[in-house]
Amino acid sequence: MKFLIVVIACLAIASAKITEEMMETLREYTAQCVEQEGITKEQAFALRTGNYDDPDPKVKCYANCMMEKMGFMVDGQFKPDVVQEKLGPVDGVDATKAMLVKCGSIKGSDKCDTAYQHFQCFHNNHSEL
């Protein structure tokens, strides 16, 4: 999956390492976050496939919802240890560490913007989420 992500959504399938159970969980998160944030499925799909042309605040909060459901963010705080734990087996430990070096210190104007920027950085740095 691509983060994207998010992830995640988040989220495009790109790896055989992702189980059907993981995919089902991501589908549930996606449906919940789409409904919660009031965005369209097309907006969610655009985000997870790397289209960042829609800076709608609702899309940014969708990214936050996905990041929180995956445990990558809690109350606007990024959790690199959780990202490493969950993405390491999918992306590879070294690749995940390298991505965290590039993406780990991102701070946006609020928690939704921070999550959106992380989502974008993960995708651009080839996270499988």
Automatic annotation (TrEMBL):
<keyword id="KW-0964">Secreted</keyword>
<dbReference type="GO" id="GO:0007608">
    <property type="term" value="P:sensory perception of smell"/>
</dbReference>
<dbReference type="InterPro" id="IPR006170">
    <property type="entry name" value="PBP/GOBP"/>
</dbReference>
<dbReference type="InterPro" id="IPR036728">
    <property type="entry name" value="PBP_GOBP_sf"/>
</dbReference>
<comment type="similarity">
    <text>Belongs to the PBP/GOBP family.</text>
</comment>
<dbReference type="Pfam" id="PF01395">
    <property type="entry name" value="PBP_GOBP"/>
</dbReference>
<dbReference type="GO" id="GO:0005615">
    <property type="term" value="C:extracellular space"/>
</dbReference>
<keyword id="KW-0732">Signal</keyword>
<feature type="signal peptide">
    <location>
        <begin position="1"/>
        <end position="16"/>
    </location>
</feature>
<dbReference type="GO" id="GO:0005549">
    <property type="term" value="F:odorant binding"/>
</dbReference>
<protein>
    <submittedName>
        <fullName>General odorant-binding protein 56d-like</fullName>
    </submittedName>
</protein>
